[in-house]
Amino acid sequence: xxxxxxxxxxxxxxxxxxxxxxxxxxxxxxxxxxxxxxxxxxxxxxxxxxxxxxxxxxxxxxxxxxxxxxxxxxxxxxxxxxxxxxxxxxxxxxxxxxxxxxxxxxxxxxxxxxxxxxxxxxxxxxxxxxxxxxxxxxxxxxxxxxxxxxxxxxxxxxxxxxxxxxxxxxxxxxxxxxxxxxxxxxxxxxxxxxxxxxxxxxxxxxxxxxxxxxxxxxxxxxxxxxxxxxxxxxxxxxxxxxxxxxxxxxxxxxxxxxxxxxxxxxxxxxxxxxxxxxxxxxxxxxxxxxxxxxxxxxxxxxxxxxxxxxxxxxxxxxxxxxxxxxxxxxxxxxxxxxx
Length: 339
Ligand SMILES: Cc1cc2nc3c(=O)[nH]c(=O)nc-3n(C[C@H](O)[C@H](O)[C@H](O)COP(=O)(O)O)c2cc1C
Prior knowledge:
Layout (H helix, E strand, L loop, with lengths): L6 E2 L2 E2 L4 E3 L8 H10 L5 E7 H5 L5 H4 L9 E6 L3 H13 L4 E6 L4 H4 L11 H14 L4 E6 L9 H10 L4 E5 L13 H10 L6 E4 L5 H11 L3 E4 L9 H11 L8 H19 L1 H15 L6 H9 L4 H15 L11
Parallel strand pairs: 3-10, 4-5, 5-6, 6-7, 7-8, 8-9, 9-10
Antiparallel strand pairs: 1-2
Helix pairs in contact: 1-11, 4-6, 6-7, 11-12, 11-14
The protein binds flavin mononucleotide.
Flavin mononucleotide binds next to strand 4.
């Protein structure tokens, strides 16, 4: 397959694959893991509230958790007005973010009701004000992430992309669903293709939604003509997906699915990265949440999950993973995970 190349505002990425921003997921440990396993050109932070940054919420500095190991990094912010978003963008770029991304796609009530995220798609003049204002202060590349529109069947994405381009955005990510759909149905890649056809060809388009394996990766590029592909849920419990997709692009052959012991080894790696970053207590708590994704599809997943829920430390988690490993050494091949 012909692999596109992705350059965002002069920043040339090693791969067109982007780890999607996911609240509660794409923290430092997940980003480092994806980078270490390979194939991921750009990682995204969890979303920052522009308001929280502006009014100095004490939780914000703890979220600025990137290092050289998870860069280049795109820091995402959400907010409802240009002034607040601009203050947040300046803060994030001062903290070393390589790219600033503005969220115009989040349909979650807490975000949408505050007049941010996808709710701005109902009133595009506000999108214009925000992008223009942030652009005026942003020295690093600026990107925007959006959906097809708010109301199902009423696409505002064409107008949105025109505005983003006029206001100087360096790339646009489109998740091929409407906000009202949340995650229902399938992502409409034909619609993303229409966006690509109509938008300024100098600005890269990153296509997003439902890419989980080599076939969907190949298809989204072929259909949409995008320059980059963003992956969210497909990386949950499968941070090696970027490496596999790049291997597929190089060789044309889909890599063998990982066997259970190999997956458990990556889960152990995740456990150790978490411990190094957060210390034992917080790492164990986070890892208990992650395990469920890793063992999805295992024959003995219920048993492993129950044992993990009893653990109190990363050491105990490692022991459970070792025990599961012994049980799995027969080499159960994990089935393709569904979203
Ligand atoms: C747990 C979770 C958290 C998410 N958080 C964010 C977020 O903070 N900002 C954002 O723009 N999108 C967020 N998304 C949406 C993803 O970035 C992505 O657009 C969506 O999941 C579709 O891509 P996928 O089919 O590859 O998962 C989130 C998705 C999930 C599943």
